[in-house]
Amino acid sequence: MLIRKLALAGAFALSATTAMAACSFENDVEVKTLSAGFEAWKAVTDAMAECGNVQAELDQEFRTKQPAAFAANPSLYAVGGVSNGTITPLLNEGTIRPLDDLVEKYGQNLSPNQLIRVDGQVMAIAMMVNTQHMMYRSDIFEELGLDAPVTYDDVLDAAAAIQEAGVVDYPLGATMQSGWNLAQDFNNMFLGYGGTFYNEDSTPAVNSEAGLKALETMKALTEYMDPEYLISDSTYVQQQFQQGKIAMANLWGSRGGAMDDPAESQVVGKVGSSAAPIAEEGNAPATTLWWDGIVIAKNITDEEADAAFRVAMEGLDSEMVQANNGAAIWLVSGYEPNDMAMGAIATATADPAPVSYPSTSQMGLMHTAIGNELDAFFTGGRSAEETLAAIEESYTSAAKEAGLLQ
Amino acid sequence: MKFKTFAMFVGPSVFLMLLFIAFPLITVLINSFQVTQPVFTTQEIETCTPGFLTQTCTTEVKTIPVLGDDGSPITTTQWVGLSSYANVLGGDRFTRALADLNMGAILQIDFWKALRFTLTFTLVTLPFVLGLGLAIAVVVNNATKAVKGPVIFISLLPFIITPVIGALSIRWLFYGDGILTVWLELWFDTDLSIAANGWAVEFLMMFYRIWHVAPFAFVIFYAGLQTVNQDTLESAIIDGASRWERLRFVVIPHLMPLIVFITLIHLMDAYRAFEEVIGFSSESQRITLQYLTYDYLRPDDAGNRQISSASASAMLTMIGVVILLAAPLRRTWRDHRG
Fold first, then answer.
1. What is the β-pairing status of strands A121-130 and A329-330?
2. A402: nearest CA in chain B?
3. Minimal C-alpha gap between B96 and chain A (Å)
4. Contacts of A363 in chain B (CB under 8 A)
5. Among A75, A249, B112, B323, which residue's beta carbon has the most beta carbons within 10 A?
6. DSSP code, position A108
7. 3-state DSSP assignment of residue A289
């Protein structure tokens, strides 16, 4: 018995070594990576690790750690996983290097769509797009004779019908956890109503018609949600969906795959997806486009950068994508979109298309100000006008301290 | 003791206090009067972002920091006087609300909101911690020897548990479809949403703090009870004093220095409450002063952090602790001098 177990263990060990061989070269330079911790990053860093000498750190607090870690000399990590929202401090502080020569050397398999150029130089390699899509329980919608919602008015109508039928605890779910999530939900709606966050001279502009409409719609939506929506983040909404407690949610595309995971979900095959709803006729879907990708630190030697980039290319090859097709909407060749990805793809290719998240120094301050001040509106203490005025004041004082406003 | 011996014993401690407490404190104080900003410039930048099939490139004017020769942003530091303090206190919004005598508007400013909650939290939990701690100590002291050990162990458990884990376990009992919420819902036949109700969250946070700290008071009181003069107690019994009178006139006066000690420690700890906000995710309903400082320090997505405001907020928190501690400290000082 013991011998059989040992033999089995040996076989596993052997298969592990064959997995090593999936990398086309043997990496002998130590490469450290720091990225977010969601499924797609796990897939990519596992594929990178096949080349050997790769230490991957997957941490949801990466956005706090990255700027300081990359500013160190030598940098604490060679490869960083970023999104269009978190690349800003790295670009601003000049802690990542242009990748043009490395792309020329090793990037034959990259499509032009993946090269993120800032001022003509390639600064990052994108691997996936992420955006919100409307996920809904297709079985309930069919039963009640509802169509997939196109606008937020449709969402409200459908929510009322579902409430009436009483088939789920709450018709709607939303990522409205106080802070970053709540602010991002507002941003989506605000852009959906055609708002702009700040003027050219960095003064705030959220106290506008679009701001009022966005708050009004959000408040109307909360009527159909679990009253504890101010603690609900993406994972919470995903679980509500998986446990059959909600029937609709405008959720990140990267969360779609979990709906059909039989180990977690009670609603396998019952969730459909469509484009993120439109807030106002003629406008783009009320959401923002995001990409996730890799950057290479500036404060490392050229040899290290060379090895880091080669390893990263191994992590972003079609082999990896084919093995993890459902984990994200990949930009890498070899990706076959599944049904669940259709909603997010419809969002991204809508006409007019949603803008990508406007990542700037001003937007960072604005995002924080919105996150801090919206609470009082939703817990009932403050009117929409007062809340928007408070956001502007909060932004102004932070912008003065940051030196963006005089 | 000779001065030299005294100095050799105290020296290392004084040195470490200066290094790890006084020096950082001075830095924070200086930071609260200074603002360090990068030098910004505006530049037209073309940024390309991938769509699903093709890229879209946009050219826009972006405000970016100027990089120096060493590759890091150039910064300037200015003295700004009390402006960061004014900022934390609410600036124009505060003066406007004050002029209108509008209490509601004042309490919507983060600092005052945090101060209101922190003070209530500190002062409401204090009598419960003292009372509960004393009650447990008296009960344990009167328990038979056989059960004393296990009872002491069980009473100490809440104090041993890691604070965040303790807060989370109470949160899981009540938030969402927590076991206790489901029971309460069945019992009263209603639909409860604890996390959506500010006062319910506030109550849970206080409940958690009392549950967590009472064992500390218990241990101190229990030790104190061992030193109560048995002769005095016996003569009180002979004088016909009831159990309550013995507690009131013999035990409590004997424990008074310990009560003051626990009050001091609790005021200090509770005023700096932080883990409750994280454990109960109460940011939308209730925040504490310590959390406010943390919130200023946390970098946003663009990497910006409000260090000056955070320092000012930290200094204000410290001043608050000093004011709170003044009364009990004066008392100890007086007792000390006899």
1. antiparallel
2. B37
3. 13
4. 301-302
5. A249
6. T
7. strand
Q: How far is A377 from chain B (nearest CA, A)?
A: 10
Q: Where exactly are the structural domains of chain B?
A: 110-337
SS3 A287: coil
- Confidence (pLDDT) at A19: 44
What pLDDT was estimated at residue A10? 47
B303 and A88: CB-CB below 8 Å?
Answer: yes
The H or E element that residue A336 is part of is none
CB-side neighbour CA atoms (13 Å) of B118? 27
Return the DSSP state at A254: G
What pLDDT shows up at residue A4? 52
Q: Which of residues 220-279 of A touch B (CB under 8 A)?
A: 226-231
Residue range B110-337 forms a domain whose CATH class is mainly alpha
**Whole-angstrom distance, CA of residue B224 vs CA of residue B255:** 6
d(CA A158, CA A176): 20
A349 alpha-carbon distance from chain centroid = 17
pLDDT confidence band for B63 (50 / 70 / 90): confident
Q: Would you call A200 an interface residue with chain B, using a CB distance cutoff of 8 Å?
A: yes
Estimate the crossing angle of helix A209-222 against helix A180-192, to 10 degrees: 120
Interface test with A, best of B287, B301, B309 (most A CBs within 10 A): B301
Which whole number is the average pLDDT over A173-180? 92
Percent of chain A whose predicted confidence (pLDDT) is above 90: 58
A355: helix, strand or coil: coil
For A118, the closest chain B residue by CA position comes to B47
**Region A153-159: what's the mean pLDDT?**
95
Which residue, B321, B266, B9, is CA-closest to B131? B266
The per-residue pLDDT for A363 is: 92
* Cα(B288)–Cα(A264) distance, integer angstroms: 36
Cα B39 from Cα B305, distance rounded (Å): 15
Dihedral angle, C-alpha B265, B266, B268, B271, nearest 10 °: 170
Residue reference for tokens 């000498």: A53
Residue A352: asked if its preceding bond is cis (omega within 30°), the reply is: yes
CA dihedral A333, A336, A338, A344 (to 10 degrees): 30
- Identify residue A154 by its one-letter amino acid code: D
The answer, yes or no, to whether ipTM is higher than 0.90 is no
Q: What are phi and psi of A221, to 5 degrees?
A: -65, -35
Most confidently modeled range among A83-92, A266-275, B191-200, B215-224: B215-224
A93, two tokens = 């502080």
Asked whether residue A401 carries a pLDDT value surpassing 50, the answer given is yes
Q: Minimal CA–CA distance to A105: which of A255, A279, A310, A322? A: A310
Mean pLDDT, rounded, for A209-237? 93
Residue-range domains of chain A with CATH = 18-129+290-343 (3.40.190.10), 132-287+360-402 (3.40.190.10)
> Å from B56 to nearest chain A CA?
9
In chain A, what is the straight-line distance between the N-terminal and C-terminal CA atoms, in Å?
77
